[in-house]
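Re: the pair you flagged

First of the two:
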Amino acid sequence: MEDLSEEERELAAMVREFAETVVAPQSYEADRTHTLSMDVVAQMGDLGLFGLPFPEEYGGQGGDYMALGIAIEALGRVDQSIAITLEAGVSLGAMPIFRFGTEEQRQELLPDLLAGRALAGFGLTEPEAGSDAGATRTTARLEGDEWVIEGSKQFITNSGTPITRFVTVTAVTGVENGRKEVSTIIVPNGTPGFTVEPPYDKVGWNASDTHPLSFQGARVPVANLLGERGRGFKNFLSILDEGRIAIAALSTGAAEGCLEAAIDYAKSRTIFGSALSTRQNAQFTLARMRARVHTARLAWHHAARLRDADKPFAEAAAIAKLVAGEAAMDNARDATQIFGGNGFMNEFPVARHYRDSKILEIGEGTTEVQLLVIARGLGLAG
């Protein structure tokens, strides 16, 4: 972390200590029972983590996206479910309100979100609209002074917790020149016709809150439009660009957590009379794992610095997510191999990382989408 300022180093140390002393001890049981600890969420709020990249006038910490990434990386090292709860709470919950909301919406919604007293979901993905988000089928029509929403969303993080306040959803609000007009609308939890369906039974991220959503004649005021009508899809794409930096930071933390666990285990495991760490094959495996962590961190730091300097960063964010997501998955596989049979036991963190890390190559844009973004940057894709 040689490129970090003294303030950034202090933040990293603070969140790392919190992760070790508060998050890690409850991670196994939370994963086993598929339970998100609201106490941990509240403590993250008390530390100011949900408000890191937001101005103080709304209750934020006055930091930047680099600061958010530092916190997410430190959490991802010990518990990806908690890290994604923070990432989604900021990037997908609060950031759309801050970036595109009216001043009234910001004043009403941001203080609780930035304090960790409330969470919000980001309703983009549908059964037929994932990477092809332009295939949105959820609709919203105006009837008097209300939007009437029909449709469904899936894989929505932070949408069903006890403190979830609302979800923002993309919906087709009309057709212009033969193309769908997609807008974004705020739907408070508890709105009649809006149902948060039972949680998923997932491979990983078991302590993260994830639900499908359904809308059957759900009515919200016309003032709940978020941003300009017809710009919902474009606005959310920009939110995803930022989110990819945060996911890359999470992935880097996961990759580092796997490396550290594998090193400790290799030093303590005796095989044929000597420590596993003395075997060249194990040494080479650990060396490759270290190189992946280093490369992933450089990639997301670069993307975050560009974003915070108001420079174009979409391609750098795609590269960071691609490199870091693969680093997490590769390191989880290698760490599990180092652990041998123990790596297949859920009580060991590397087993959880092995299950958790695959989604890092899928969520907020698949590996293939990142490659497409990079190819476009090369002038290769139509």
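Second of the two:
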Amino acid sequence: MKKLFGRFAAMLFALALASPLAAAESKITIAVGGGACLCYLPTVLAKQLGEFDKAGVNVDLVDLKGGSDALKAVLGGSADVVSGYFDHCVNLAARKQELQAFVVYDRYPGLVLVVSPAHTKEINSIKDLAGKKVGVSAPGSSTDFFLKYVLKKNGLDPTSAAVIGVGLGATAVAAMEQGQIDAAVMLDPSVTVLQGAHADLKILADTRTQKDTLAMFGGEYPGGALYSTAAWVASHEKEAQALTNAILSTLAWIHSHSAEDIMAKMPEEMVGKDKALYLAALKNTIPMYSETGRMDPKGADAVLAVFSEGSPEVASAHVDVAKTFTNKFVDQARKTTGMGAK
């Protein structure tokens, strides 16, 4: 009897080891720069679909207010990887801090500069933002970088507007509707939510489509990616590969399913009460998601060019942008599984 029980216990143990959950031996903390934002959906969806577990990593997602907060979490050691905008890698390279993106999930940044409904009559152009209060997710985040770039591009001092941190989700929408700020750099679904309530919503700059992105930056401009310190990536290649595989599988799932299917997999608290508006925003956003996971070197160069124009520090730093990303994990996934082959 004891021998039989021993064999049964051994069999159960073997089955447990073979299960996806048991395979998830590596514990990785990913700091997300605002999980409710559709720009970060691939990371959240990968968790919802169990793709991280299938790839052999036990991922804990930590939702933070903005990209700068997620970056601080990694630099401070409380998180391993950032799910955030690639431009931080370029900006930090100018300060001799080596960060490296290893899988890209957003082809476009999706940033939108919107006028508060309460200030529609007084703000008709970007030049009218001088001296005004403009909301960003958090000071130092990609929304802040974008604002400064747009101001500079329109002949204004990048610091001519007062920057106010308002987050990316419901807090940003509330700040806009209550007139606490004059304008804001927002992302979907928040922009679509505002448009649903205010048909005359005024948009001053938009990068949600390829056409608008090309008009704004002169080329494709990568948005969301998984990145970490170059030292972490070099010393955790197995984990970086697993995370890359999970994101690529998720991107393939996104592009082979309907917006309704995707919404059904997302956490209810992120979808919100108005499912119709969320669905509309999601349908607008799906083309923004990468089909390959690869960083386009020209896109990385465009990020450097934008920062060089808006920041004398970056312009004079002679940043080697090739060191701020790697495609080797995506290429390896393509060789071994065929993922990201488009």
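Residues 1-24 have pLDDT under 50 and may be disordered.

-B.
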